[in-house]
Every structure is written in structure tokens, then in C-alpha cells.
Design a protein that fits this description.
5 helices, two-stranded antiparallel sheet
Length: 169
């Protein structure tokens, strides 16, 4: 009886570990060959496979919005034509990888928030590590208080509201 209980516990622990490991992040290393806007890039991996990467945890202004082009230029200045590392665990409905981009140990997603060129995307914050969630939120508050980038506007319209208004017309 005692041996069966130990085996059952071992099986349960193994199953939990297997489930946890399958939920862990995957990664890509590649060369940034395109910057679509302030939160989306094209990554070339192994000189032949391209991925669209949507930066996780942030939402940048749309290209036609105030600061949309500034946000795109900022992202381009940070990583265009550079080799980056992407951690991800999901794809969006458009087939894009949703990922956290690092360049020389710099969290590129967070940099966009720090510069006031993206919002912390609270709708999806529960998909972030708690430490990232807190950091992104804190940096957004700092950028807002300092009136950086889009926060220099009196009432900046979040991109999710901008997209909703645009689809209603």
C-alpha cells in the first residue's frame, strides 16, 4: 500500500512538471529585417524563415495616430538591422508571435514604454511575468508623469480605442 502511494505521488509530480514545462516560453534568435510599427517587427531566422513578431505587454500608437510614426522610428532605431532574442509563448489571431524582445540584455518592449511611445497593454498583463507586469506599469506611470512622448498630449487616445473607432466608420 505504501509503495502504491509513493508511485502515485511520483506520477502526479511528474504530470505537474510536464504540464508546467509545456507552458514555458519558447525562443527565437534572428535578425530584424523590418519594423512595421511601434510594436511589430519582421524577424529573419536562420537566413530563410521570417516571423512577424508583435511585442508583448505593450500597445503602440497606430501609424496614423499622433506619435505613431515616432514610435515606429524609436523601435527601428533600437533594433532594425540588429540581431535580437525573442521569448514567446503564444501566437495572436493573425499568426504573429507575441514576444518579449531583448537586444544586448535590453528589454525593447519596456524601452518603448519608458520613452512614452507605447502603453502598457493592461488587457493582457496577466500573460506577463509578475515582475514584468509591475515594471511595465511603473514605467508607464513615470513616462506619463514626465509627459514623455504620447503623454505630452492632453488626452492621448489608446490604440485599442483608436482601432475600435476606426472599425465603427
Amino acid at each position: 500500500m505504501k509503495m502504491r502511494k509513493i508511485n502515485l505521488n511520483l506520477i502526479l509530480v511528474s504530470a505537474v512538471l510536464l504540464l508546467c514545462s509545456s507552458a514555458s516560453a519558447d525562443s527565437l534568435r534572428g535578425h530584424v529585417v523590418g519594423v512595421v510599427d511601434g510594436d511589430t517587427i519582421t524577424l529573419l531566422v536562420d537566413s530563410h524563415k521570417q516571423y512577424k513578431i508583435r511585442l508583448s505587454g505593450i500597445d503602440a500608437p497606430e501609424k496614423a495616430q499622433p506619435f505613431g510614426q515616432v514610435s515606429k522610428k524609436s523601435l527601428s532605431d533600437l533594433i532594425y538591422d540588429k540581431d535580437v532574442f525573442v521569448e514567446y509563448s503564444k501566437y495572436d489571431r493573425y499568426g504573429r508571435v507575441i514576444g518579449k524582445i531583448s537586444f544586448n540584455k535590453l528589454d525593447v518592449n519596456l524601452e518603448q514604454i519608458k520613452k512614452g511611445l507605447a502603453w502598457h497593454y493592461k488587457k493582457y498583463q496577466n500573460e506577463q511575468l509578475p515582475s514584468d507586469r509591475e515594471l511595465y506599469s511603473d514605467e508607464e506611470l513615470k513616462a506619463h508623469a514626465s509627459k514623455l512622448g504620447l503623454w505630452s498630449e492632453v488626452n492621448p487616445i489608446p490604440p485599442w480605442d483608436w482601432r475600435k473607432k476606426k472599425s465603427e466608420h
